Prior knowledge:
The protein is an alpha/beta fold. It folds into two domains: 2-145 and 309-341, Quinone Oxidoreductase, Chain A, domain 1 (Alpha-Beta Complex), CATH 3.90.180.10; 153-287, 3-Layer(aba) Sandwich (Rossmann fold). The chain is built from eleven helices and 15 strands. The longest helix is centred in the middle third of the chain and has 14 residues, at 147-160. The relative contact order is 0.15.
Amino acid sequence: xxxxxxxxxxxKIKYVNGILDKPKENEVLVKIDACAICTLEKRVxxxxxxxxxxxxxxxxxxxxxxxxxxxxxxLNANDKVALRLLNRCGECYYCRSGYDNQCxxxxxxxxxxxxxxxxGFSEYILIDSKSVxxxxxxxxxKVIAFSExxxxxxxxxxxxxxxxxxxxxxxxxxxMGLLHTILAxxxxxxxxxxxxxxxxxxxxxxxxxxxxxxxxxxEPTKKVLNLTNGRGADVVVDTAPVSETAETSIKMLGKTGxxxxxxxxxPDKLVKISPNSIHYSEIIVTGSVNPSTSDxxxxxxxxxxxxxxxxxxxxxxxSFKELEYGLENSIIPENYRVIVxx
Length: 342
């Protein structure tokens, strides 16, 4: 069957005609309903990170089943689904060691023949059934598209080992910062959000943040120390893509605290960290990248049960033909997710 998909180049996009075969025995043909524009696609579009061009972008995807291969179980035509498009090979050292989020083949998969990338900006996708997660038929496809970013944040929250009553500081109130806020509240934490945008702080409050710090008006480290009686935070999650915030984040931690460097930094700049501050306080500094299969499953369960509703994080819904406009609009700092309806 014939279909259209979009590929990204620096500051431009192109629509490509493709042909899909019938599903093989373990494959599923999915009609894409919605695809959110993520930071990855924005950075590829702006040329801030290097992938081979043209790049078949789009990985925060929902859709419904059109057809299944003969060995596919538990999926039927018209089922609503979430797709995990950053594929896992299941064979490399990291996949076999239980760290499939570190799969060395993840970005090498070519969903559309001849084009690297996850390929979610497309009318249809042919995909292995292991990457398809069934969702409730009455759940909005725009909400289902948040499965992947929510899964990323679940992975981060799990690495932070948040416990009941912990003081958690979220640096940055973009989409990922706010999803972290929602999840940290579900874990029973007192959540403080640091942000320079008044508008984003207002949204953070709606997402359940207990304390808001306007970094234009208050020094965040002093504020956090005051809030915790001089102890410092149990957990800090840095979601701001600015290297300098890493130094501030460490200073906000209390003894035995955990810092999650969630965002990647472009450009990557060195920061100053005192080895003794880590040694004597026994703080843990670690990163978090990509969800595991179990993280993705938990994300679909949270959305399916309505325990998490990310609708407040949708800034705009556009058509597939408006993708270039959507990419430009998604770059505006005040905007959250722009959703492409296929």
